[in-house]
């Protein structure tokens, strides 16, 4: 009997949940367990619950892997920001160097940097120029300054 596409999805999802549970029971961190379970799914070639050989096509596996990769990304992001409750990532202000979401940090002529280190990286290590720019922050038309916002969103 050939499984329908829907049944193949179900099999992979069930297997993913089973693997996830296993890795969590091994004491793995939630994100690590999700990544391991995803790797387990990638290795599937046929229905793991059947003794008969019931192949699962790579494109179905790819689709399920894509779906779970997205949810892992979301978990990572929400862990990072703590209170991030929107999945609309395009509207989050991020450090141009390290990608960290920012609620406060340096504004540098149109770009954002979260820390002194990232700012220095943005200046390619030119500490002198960075110092000059930041010390002209109070002047009219100053393009570089420290700023805090209400939220992580633009
Ligand atoms: Zn940064």
Please, could you describe this protein's structure?
There is one protein chain. By secondary structure, this protein is mainly alpha-helical. It has two domains: 5-81, no CATH class; 91-148, no CATH class. 47% of the residues lie in helices and 8% in strands. The protein contains five helices and three strands; from the N terminus they run H-H-H-E-E-H-H-E. It has helices at 5-25, 30-42, 58-81, 116-122, 127-134; strands at residues 104-108, 111-113, 144-148. It has a three-stranded antiparallel β-sheet. Helix 1 (5-25) crosses helix 2 (30-42) and helix 2 runs antiparallel to helix 3 (58-81). The longest helix is centred in the middle third of the chain and has 24 residues, at 58-81. The radius of gyration is 23 Å and the shape is elongated. The mean pLDDT is 86. Zinc ion binds at residues 95, 97-98, 100, 113-115, 118.
Mean pLDDT: 86
The shape, in one word, is elongated
Question: Approximately how much helix is present in the residues?
Answer: 40-55%
Task: Determine the N-to-C terminus distance.
Answer: 53 Å
Gyration radius over CA: 23 Å
For the biggest β-sheet, the strand order reads 2-1-3
Query: How much strand?
Result: 5-15%
Number of domains: 2
- Derived structural class: mainly alpha
Number of strands: 3
Q: Major sheet: size, sense and barrel closure?
A: 3 strands, antiparallel
Low-confidence stretches: none
The SSE order reads HHHEEHHE
Number of helices: 5
* Ligand inventory: zinc ion
